Amino acid sequence: MIERATRSVDFEELRARNGARIGVARLNAEKTLNALTLEMIDLLGERLAAWAGDPGIALVAMEGAGEKAFCAGGDLHALRASILEHRASPRRDDIRANAYALDFFSREYRLDYLIHTYPRPVLCWGHGIVMGGGIGLMAGASHRVVTERSRLAMPEIGIGLYPDVGGTRVLGRMPGKLGLFLALTGAPLDASDALFAGIADCEVPHSGKARFFEALLGVPWTADRQENGRLLTNLVRGASAPRTDSIGPARRNLDLINDACRHATLSEIAHAVREIATQDPWLAQAATALEAGSPSSAALSHALQQRARNLSLADVFRMELVASMHTAARPDFAEGIRALLIDKDRRPRWSPATLEETTQEWIEGYFASPWQPAEHPLADLGAGTG
Fold first, then answer.
1. Which structural domain, as residue segments, surrounds residue 71?
2. Are the C-beta atoms of 113 and 169 separated by less than 8 Å?
3. CATH code at position 375
4. What is the pLDDT of residue 382?
5. Can you give the pLDDT at residue 19?
6. Please, what is the angle between helix 178-185 and helix 281-292, to 10°?
7. Shortest CA distance to 72 belongs to which of 144, 9, 151, 179?
8. What integer pLDDT is reported at residue 293 of this predicted model?
9. Is-contact 42 107, C-beta < 8 A?
10. What is Dmax (Cα atoms) for the chain?
11. Could you tell me if 141 and 160 are in contact, meaning their C-beta atoms sit under 8 angstroms apart?
12. Helix runs in the chain, H state only
């Protein structure tokens, strides 16, 4: 059974040969590379919650419509409109007053947390572009598949945001200093590097997708989550065909990355990244992105990773929501969207304009919560133990 209308997410239930059901959620916004809207977030959250309580659902699979992307991020146009409206309002000094941004970020993070803690195995078919909000959906899945055409990135520094959607924790768990480097540069990962970084579990040829989903129907699914997870792991491994001769640029340059990012201050790190830029085209592109990106985003990303080291997943999402609402109230986010998507001049005017101008007081302001702990919109996530 498949539900099709004009909705931005398609839902389908496949029936395995032993009678168990597989829930399939398909992002259905191909023209925008399946970028997440608030409607899509709500549809996914509602259906995933329903499937979580349905004992007949053995597992859930997520995919994107079309051949270009699983999900290229979030709906930036609507966020910018809400930012401009908030700035013009009498409550512009209250970050809580941007109702749309608060709804978008809090519901998105709640959805991502649900996927991380889902009571069924979750398969994510991460084909093509997977960026920003797409990483948020994919990172929490129990079984994360990439293909030969997957390109994963969190390039938020280029739009005045930062790697949110739990990215603070995801990047912080990557090998060495790779996560910090990716946060500061937005550098993309191919399938090989996604596996190395621990953000994907297996590479499967995209040409085998139909055959793989057909094979799901022949698996003897049970009512036990751990057993179903094991069965899905075996199926994914059996379908995988990794390119054993492929070593991606992130893995190839990890020693250089670690050396550049070992410094105590962000200014020293940025200088070191610029110094290694000539040794590899991928590194050169990364250094250029750091140089052109928002200094506030770089400083915030650096501070977030330092603060998140001993936090639970739920606390990371709570911290990110506060930081995101402050980001929406400050200059760079709307300006970055303008330069990339509105005027498309790719010449953002950042404020502050340099890393040296991002004072400690400026960065500390991103962590000032307008809510008491019990009033936080995500206070109930994991009861603080996510």
1. 2-384
2. no
3. 3.90.226.10
4. 87
5. 97
6. 60
7. 151
8. 98
9. yes
10. 63
11. no
12. 38-52, 76-87, 99-116, 133-139, 167-172, 178-185, 191-197, 209-216, 225-239, 249-252, 254-260, 266-275, 281-292, 295-307, 313-329, 331-337, 360-364
Distance CA 139, CA 198 (A): 9
* Structure token pair of residue 32: 């925008």
Tell me which amino acid residue 241 is. A
Residue 224: HSE in the Cβ half-sphere, 13 Å Cα cutoff: 5
For residue 6, what pLDDT is reported? 57
Alpha-helix residue ranges (DSSP H) falling in 240-312: 249-252, 254-260, 266-275, 281-292, 295-307
For position 40, what pLDDT does the model report?
98
**Residue 195: closest CA among 250, 233, 238, 156:** 250
Q: How far apart are CA 85 and CA 13, in angstroms?
A: 41
What's the CA gap between 75 and 66, in Å, rounded? 18
Check residue 350 and give its pLDDT: 98
Number of domains in the chain: 1
Question: What does residue 221 show for φ and ψ, rounded to 5 degrees?
Answer: -60, 150
- Joined together, the tokens standing for residue 253 give 């340059």
Residues in the chain: 386
Distance from C-alpha of 132 to C-alpha of 297, rounded to nearest angstrom = 14
Series of mean pLDDT values for 10-residue runs along the chain (386 residues): 68 98 98 97 98 97 97 96 97 98 98 98 98 98 97 98 97 97 98 97 95 97 97 95 79 96 96 86 96 98 95 98 98 98 97 96 97 97 62
Catalytically active residues, by annotation: 74, 133, 156, 164
* pTM value > 0.85: yes
- For residue 361, CA distances in Å to 229, 299, 300, 368 come to 46, 12, 12, 11
3-class SS of residue 131: strand
What is the SS3 assignment for 140? Answer: coil
Please give the backbone phi and psi of residue 30, each rounded to the nearest 5 degrees, phi first.
-60, -35
What does the alpha-carbon distance between residue 112 and residue 101 come to, in Å, rounded to a whole number? 16
Query: Whole-angstrom Cα distance, residue 45 to residue 39?
Result: 10
